[in-house]
């Protein structure tokens, strides 16, 4: 495998290699695949107009919120206590703490979607799109809770003590227990394949490519190969340590960068504090106004739903892979931790981006129409010409954290598919390919590959949500038991 990768790198760096022709060929192939697959995934539901995949994700959020009795409200304070380590038992089985599991999952979601995606939503749907973004994230908390509880219930451990969990495991094992072994195995394999494809494209190629583009915007002389190799080296240093090393890195990176980003946004907001009340009012009123900007009520709602789903990934099941490695003997407890993810990702980080853009009016600049991160950079620029450079650093760190977290998701999916036959060689192969793609990311601009990765990412929601709905009684019983013991004060406290 190493010889193959070295040969490919030598070929691509040689004058004989026609980069433009290669990009055109790959874009053409994946463009045809996208053209056939996207209409199915985004088929508009009659009389509703919401694309099929987004309808499934929204319906799933509503279902689990009511099914578990608004667990996202009832146990929210408890979730904060768990993340603080109040219930951490070092003797519990697992690889990382509750806090490290949360930051590992967040590192895969907090990134360009929060910075550029929100700007796109406002540009296409106006301020009202933010209201729907908030609402979807609220119900998405229950989706995250459900998938991460299932992941803990059905996780397995290999001979070296590494945990393997996530939708590919609980769909296969859970449906097998209910007499649908073949269906469960099929869904587990489908989910794993989609996860690997999503990790290569959206979790890797896109992040590396955009990291270079952001650096080049501030430093036009930046070399794409240097950026790619540097990012690959930094990622490789962490990847060899597995989820324990990823948890250690993200537990430091994510709080630091989220704190920096939110504080910067708050400085901009406080400097325009008098406009905040009317701004919040416009978000609510334009969310329901039939004549709301850019397409009316339905268009505004779809933009909010779409951006929230892409940003916090609730329902996709990706976060469950990270949370399955947490140290706990209480599956519901890890689900409670996971539901904080959409709050931080969407209600805090995305909201700060949105308010900063709206209060500075950056989205109204004609030359920035249709742009993403450029709009956010313009909003930050109101604090001074140096701020876009700081934003560049934040974006690079967010992209880096996304790269290392998605590598873990892809590893677990690869192990599920090939682990029994190939053992840890399967993971080594995956890591080599993954690092190689990081190097290529800044050099190639293969948009249709990234679009296909997005389709793969969203495709993960279908088997995950439908399977969880069918098996929801199991978690419902666990929730009732857990809440009863918690309210009776029977939970042991360690800190």
Q: What's a quick, concise take on this entry?
A:
This protein is 75% helix and 1% strand. The chain has 23 helices and 2 strands.
Features:
single chain, 495 residues, mainly alpha, Hydantoin permease, 23 helices, 75% helix, globular
What is the beta-strand fraction? under 5%
Helicity level: over 70%
Domain count, please report it. 1
Order of helices and strands: HHHHHHHHEEHHHHHHHHHHHHHHH
How many helices? The count is 23
Query: In CATH's first tier, which class applies?
Result: Mainly Alpha
Radius of gyration: 22 Å
**Regions with pLDDT < 50 over 5+ consecutive residues?**
291-295
What fold name stands as the CATH topology?
Answer: Hydantoin permease
Global geometry? globular
The N- and C-terminal alpha carbons lie at a distance of 48 Å
Assign the CATH architecture.
Orthogonal Bundle
Major sheet, described briefly? 2 strands, antiparallel
- Quick check: average pLDDT? 81
What class do helices, strands and sheet pairing give?
mainly alpha
Order of the strands making up the biggest sheet: 1-2
Number of strands: 2
Describe what you observe in this structure:
With 495 residues, the chain is an all-alpha fold. It has one domain: Hydantoin permease (Orthogonal Bundle). The protein has a two-stranded antiparallel ribbon with strand order 1-2. Helix 8 packs parallel to helix 14 and helix 8 packs antiparallel against helix 17. It is globular. About 1% of the residues have low confidence.
Task: Chart the SSEs and their pairings.
Elements (H helix, E strand, L loop, with lengths): L1 H12 L5 H23 L10 H16 L3 H4 L1 H8 L14 H12 L2 H14 L2 H26 L2 E2 L5 E2 L2 H11 L3 H38 L5 H16 L2 H29 L5 H13 L7 H17 L5 H6 L7 H8 L2 H20 L12 H8 L6 H36 L1 H17 L6 H13 L1 H10 L1 H16 L8
Antiparallel strand pairs: 1-2
Helix pairs in contact: 2-21, 3-8, 3-22, 5-16, 6-12, 6-19, 7-14, 7-17, 7-18, 8-13, 8-14, 8-16, 8-17, 9-10, 9-22, 10-11, 10-19, 10-20, 10-21, 11-19, 11-20, 12-17, 12-19, 17-18, 19-20
């Amino acid at each position: 495998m190493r010889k193959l990768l070295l040969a490919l790198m030598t070929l691509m760096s040689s004058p004989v290699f026609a980069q433009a022709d290669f990009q055109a060929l790959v874009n053409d192939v994946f463009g045809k695949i996208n053209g056939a697959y996207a209409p199915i995934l985004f088929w508009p539901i009659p009389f509703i107009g919401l694309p099929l995949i987004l309808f499934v994700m929204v319906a799933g959020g509503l279902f689990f919120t009511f099914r578990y009795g608004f667990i996202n409200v009832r146990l929210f304070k408890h979730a904060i206590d768990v993340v603080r380590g109040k219930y951490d038992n070092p003797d519990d089985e697992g690889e990382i703490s509750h806090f490290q599991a949360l930051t590992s999952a967040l590192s895969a979601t907090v990134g360009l979607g929060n910075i550029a995606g929100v700007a796109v939503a406002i540009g296409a749907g106006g301020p009202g799109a933010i209201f729907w973004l908030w609402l979807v994230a609220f119900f998405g908390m229950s989706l995250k809770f459900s998938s991460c509880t299932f992941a803990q219930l059905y996780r397995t451990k290999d001979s070296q003590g590494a945990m393997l969990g996530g939708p590919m495991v609980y769909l296969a094992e859970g449906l097998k227990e209910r007499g649908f072994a073949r269906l469960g195995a099929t869904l587990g394999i489908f989910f794993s394949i989609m996860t690997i494809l999503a990790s290569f494209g959206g979790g890797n190629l896109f992040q590396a490519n955009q990291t270079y583009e952001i650096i080049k915007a501030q430093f036009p002389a930046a070399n794409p190969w240097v950026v790619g190799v540097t990012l690959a080296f930094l990622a490789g240093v962490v990847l060899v340590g597995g989820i324990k090393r990823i948890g250690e890195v993200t537990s430091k990176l994510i709080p630091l960068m989220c704190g920096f980003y939110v504080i910067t946004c708050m400085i901009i907001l406080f400097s325009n504090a008098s406009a905040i009340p009317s701004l919040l009012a416009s978000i609510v009123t334009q969310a329901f106004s039939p004549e709301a900007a850019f397409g009316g009520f339905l268009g505004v709602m779809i933009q909010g739903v779409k951006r929230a789903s892409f940003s916090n990934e609730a329902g996709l099941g990706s976060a469950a892979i990270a949370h399955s490695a947490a140290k706990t003997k209480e599956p519901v407890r890890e689900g409670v931790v996971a539901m904080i993810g959409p709050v931080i990702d969407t209600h805090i980080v995305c909201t700060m981006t949105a308010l900063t853009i709206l209060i500075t009016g950056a989205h109204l600049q004609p030359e920035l129409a249709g742009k993403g991160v450029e709009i956010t950079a313009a909003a930050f620029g109101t604090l001074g010409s140096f701020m876009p450079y700081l934003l560049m650093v934040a974006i690079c760190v967010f992209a880096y954290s996304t790269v290392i977290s998605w590598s873990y998701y892809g590893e677990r999916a690869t192990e599920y598919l090939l682990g029994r036959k190939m053992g840890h060689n399967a993971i080594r192969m995956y890591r080599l390919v993954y690092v190689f793609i990081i190097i290529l990311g800044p050099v190639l601009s293969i948009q249709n590959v990234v679009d296909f990765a997005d389709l793969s990412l969203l495709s993960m929601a279908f088997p995950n949500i439908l399977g969880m709905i069918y098996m929801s009684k199991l978690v419902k019983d666990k929730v009732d038991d857990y809440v009863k013991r918690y309210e009776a004060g029977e939970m042991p406290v360690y800190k």
